[in-house]
Amino acid sequence: MWIAELSRRTEVPVATIKYYLREGLLPAGESVGATRSRYGEAHVHRLRLIRALVESGGLSLARVRSVLAEVDEESLELHDVLGAAHSALIPDDLTATAESRRRVDELVVEHGWLVHPDSRDLLLLAGALDALDKVGYHLEDDLLETYAVAATKIAEAEVSHLPTDDRQRIVESGVLVTALGGPILLALRRLAQQNASANRYGTSRLSHLNHPPAGRA
Question: Which candidate in 26, 53, 77, 84 could, as Cys together with 20 as Cys, close a disulfide (CB 3.0–4.6 Å)?
């Protein structure tokens, strides 16, 4: 396909595609003349990945370049590539108290999670616990445990749904789920909270949706 079609399929402007090509974020197409190149499905997948990381993941191009370098490094294990994507999505300026770090470390040990000791997600979680403490809400251990159990189930399901036939697709799908799955979980959590609140406290303004979901009539 020509660059115009690539732009239509990915909804990325031609000028932006050319910029990504100049910056080395997108591999060059197959040259078919002095000024023309042909592109394939690999370019479609790569552009969608870049767009997701930049627009939805909020990553700078420097961070995107770092993630793509890991994606393209064939010698790396898939686990390490997905870990690199996780790290790219986490801010650098993280801090946490020793007490919160202790709680997080104990949680990981209790669940037997195979986690790198330098994972910034450990610090991110501990910092989130500190933030709650600062506003006067201490997250009790039983609720933290509930979160961990739910997270385990979600993560195992996500990984089990990754493709198995192609390394590049596995990596790209994993990165996309990591970058874009957060809003889905957040929306589902809020909907479930509305339901739990209505059941506990009662409400006269809400009712069950009385129409069947699409495709389940």
Answer: 26
